[in-house]
Amino acid sequence: MNEPTDPRRRRFLTNSLLATSAVLLAGCDRLSRSDTMSRLFDAGEALTQRAQRLLASRESLAREYAPKDIAPTFRANGTTNPQNEAYRRLAANGFRDWRLTIDGLVERPQTFSLDELKAMPSRTQITRHDCVEGWSCIGQWTGVVLGDLLAQVGVRDEARFVVFHCADRYHGTDPYYESLDMLEAYHPQTLLAYDLNGTDLPIANGAPLRLRAERQLGYKMAKYVMRVELVESFAHLGRGRGGYWEDRGYQWWAGI
Ligand SMILES: Nc1nc2c(c(=O)[nH]1)N[C@H]1C(S)=C(S)[C@@H](COP(=O)(O)O)O[C@H]1N2
Ligand SMILES: [Mo]
């Protein structure tokens, strides 16, 4: 993983690593003082290894592909054309009046136009999208690194999750939303993408802005993102499970 440059991001990652090592070291210390507990010590060591492997895998990059691997058309799924009046008006005007809001547990709540997001440093990545329904598709995404945006608004220490509020109601039911923990939010491949395969993100794939969290299953990757909210808990949202599909029985943790 790239060395995080934003101090808040670096502090978060360092703290979570230190907290984990402190717990594990404390455990090892205690065990090593007793000579009758060497078998338990071995177990402790195995636990340390497993924890380190888990942490390492949470920091690892998703595989990136070559341009020749890009699918001719990126499949669309779920909502592909939001019907609500507000969204349709924004789309009819080429999203010139669209604004992304970032609020909740941040120091400086802010809105961004599409042009403002496009003027920020961007990242481009070719990755494979995996949907639980049993299909995959490789596409090239360009967008703002979510961690850069979070640095601009200043995340408060109480924030534990980033919630993505979307413009659509899935099949006219409840508003679509999703959430990530801070480690996933600060991952270098986690983007708010406005470009697919070198052109503006099509409406079918989430125009004007959608989440890419490349180590997660497809349903985490909120399309039609209107608002990013930093929260301590998602108990008050939807049915309290952290996402539209989570509220209907899917796992909140959708790592792949
Ligand atoms: N707002 C919103 N985001 C969404 C969905 C949706 O219906 N609405 N469907 C999810 C699912 S299940 C998948 S697989 C991907 C599909 O993204 P795609 O249409 O670009 O293939 O978007 C996810 N994000
Ligand atoms: Mo999906």
TrEMBL record:
One Pfam family hit: Oxidored_molyb
Residue span(s) of domain Oxidoreductase molybdopterin-binding: 96-232
InterPro entries: OxRdtase_Mopterin-bd_dom (IPR000572), OxRdtase_Mopterin-bd_sf (IPR036374)
This protein's name: Molybdopterin-binding protein
